[in-house]
Write a structure and sequence with these properties.
Radius of gyration: 16 Å
Helix content: under 10%
Number of strands: 19
Number of helices: 0
Mean pLDDT: 91
Largest sheet: 19 strands, parallel
Shape: globular
Length: about 210
């Protein structure tokens, strides 16, 4: 499935995509204002076993919506992810047991947790979760939430808190290795024992 040119994919809850053998899910735009997909209220678009490539476009998310991926390779390159509901969309990117996640030069405005990463426990070589040169604002729980992940890297990215109700910029639990390089985590208030710019629980290595 490849979507290019004018127009956009307008996806509602309970929609189904049948992808052929060895096919990919690709959205290709022409810039950060070029809307290529909208996920409507409570819509869950879940792509499994087919690689996903989202390039140079905007995706809009309504309340409760999420773009989920499993058992595949996922790449977001120059993508503008916008929560239309002011923070009640679920996740711009939700991954569970993926082989590789690469986020590059992308922006995330809103969401409960803009990126949610679960159960990435097989990393045969180099780090396979990479988030580079990206910006996160106006999330209501965390910019990046990771649970049960072997190896991940956050490189040259900015996480900015919204108000004292936000849990964390980076929320890490049961992580073997997390590398932070040249990033900025700012404007998070420690008003309770669970709130901080970086929350780490059962993290073996944080560098």
């Amino acid at each position: 499935f490849t979507f290019t040119g004018a127009g956009y994919l307008n996806y509602y809850d309970d929609g189904i995509f049948w992808l052929g053998d060895n096919s990919k899910f690709i959205l290709q735009g022409t810039g950060s204002t070029d809307r290529k997909m909208k996920l409507n209220t409570n819509a869950l678009l879940h792509i499994t076993s087919h690689d996903v490539e989202i390039n140079d476009c905007k995706i809009e998310y309504a309340s409760g919506s999420s773009f989920k991926h499993s058992r595949n390779e996922v790449a977001f390159d120059y993508v503008n992810c916008v929560d239309l509901s002011g923070g009640s969309a679920a996740h711009a990117i939700e991954v569970d047991d993926v082989f590789d996640l690469l986020v590059n030069q992308s922006t995330f405005d809103g969401f409960n947790s803009a990126i949610k990463i679960d159960d990435i426990t097989t990393c045969p070589g180099e780090i396979n979760i990479n988030i580079n040169y990206s910006t996160f604002t106006n999330h209501t729980f965390a910019a990046i939430e990771a649970n049960n992940v072997e190896r991940m890297r956050l490189n040259t990215s900015t996480l900015t808190g919204k108000d004292a109700s936000v849990q964390a910029g980076l929320f890490l639990e049961d992580i073997e290795y997390c590398e932070l390089h040249n990033g900025t985590v700012k404007q998070y208030s420690m008003n309770n024992t669970d709130a901080a710019g970086i929350f780490a629980k059962n993290v073996d290595v944080l560098v």
